[in-house]
Amino acid sequence: MKVARTIAETRSALEDVRDGPIGLVPTMGGLHEGHLSLLRAAREECDTVVMSLFVNPAQFGDEHDLASYPRDEERDLALARDAGVDLVFAPSTEEMYPAGFQTWVEVTEVGSRLEGAFRPGHFRGVATVVLKLFSVVRPDRAYFGQKDAQQVAVIRQMIRDLALDVDLRVLPTVRDGDGLALSSRNALLTTEERKRALALPRALATKDLTAARALLARSNGLDVDYVEVAEFDPPVLAGAVRVGSVRLIDNVVLEGDSK
């Protein structure tokens, strides 16, 4: 497995493998089984697997959230190697956003509600960094998790609007045995906070907006940002809650299969 720190190194490493499909799995590290499921799918379907490892400051509106985001590059690289990744692109912030950077991508309608309303600028940061990763890697397929349903919707819209030549692959949400959707932020929960957080997946599992809202309203120790039906592809019942200092999102598909 190669590790490239610059855009030039990454492009050079991929020059001789473009005769077969290249798969990209964008990550911010803190790898868990959800990420590994994406890497395994990419390994099965592509000749070359690229994983990006970059905590993108542009999608964080809260400096504390950015500073506390789990980081363990050595562990992440070991897991990537075990998953059969061929190339890890692990750039610095300066490499991705050099001095004078001023070009941003904004998916206006899809990115303005739900998470976009509570985290202004978040999806501008997501769309910009993903488009830049697409430009650097030029993947045939890009792999994302259904857990971030609105992120998937934003990227799908960007691919469609900008006529990007990449196949978006979306894999099902991976959950722990207790039902909590896997997230890098779960590591920040105390034992008691984790117990309270389980109200979110249990509420969404009803697949009923009224029932989900009522269940969360009765849950102690949760601050609910929203519970809404989102008409994505496929439609989902989505929610976001805050447990202590940790903010968690989740969703369940209401009909059809993720594509």
3D architecture notes:
With 259 residues, the protein is an alpha/beta fold. The chain folds into 2 domains: 2-171, 3-Layer(aba) Sandwich (Rossmann fold), CATH 3.40.50.620; 184-253, Pantoate--beta-alanine Ligase, Chain: A,domain 2, CATH 3.30.1300.10. The chain has 11 helices and 9 strands. The longest helix has 16 residues, at 122-137. The two termini are 29 Å apart.
Q: What is the overall number of helices? A: 11
CATH homologous superfamily grouping of the largest domain: HUPs
> What order do the helices and strands follow?
EHEHEHHEHHHEHEHHHEEE
Number of strands: 9
Low-confidence stretches: none
Helix fraction bin:
25-40%
- Return the average pLDDT rounded to an integer: 96
How far apart lie the N and C ends? 29 Å
- Strand proportion, as a percent range, falls in 15-25%
In CATH, what is the class of the largest domain? Alpha Beta
Indicate how many domains the architecture comprises.
2
In short:
The protein is about 35% helix and about 20% strand. The chain is of the alpha/beta class and about 260 residues long. α7 crosses α8.
Provide key terms for this protein:
alpha/beta; 11 helices; 259 residues; globular; Pantoate--beta-alanine Ligase, Chain: A,domain 2; 37% helix; 20% strand; Rossmann fold; 2 domains
Write the layout of secondary structure elements.
Layout: E1 2-4, H1 7-14, E2 22-27, H2 33-45, E3 48-53, H3 63-68, H4 73-82, E4 87-89, H5 93-96, H6 115-118, H7 122-137, E5 141-145, H8 149-161, E6 167-171, H9 191-197, H10 199-204, H11 209-217, E7 223-230, E8 236-243, E9 246-253
Parallel strand pairs: 1-4, 2-3, 2-5, 3-4, 5-6
Antiparallel strand pairs: 7-8, 8-9
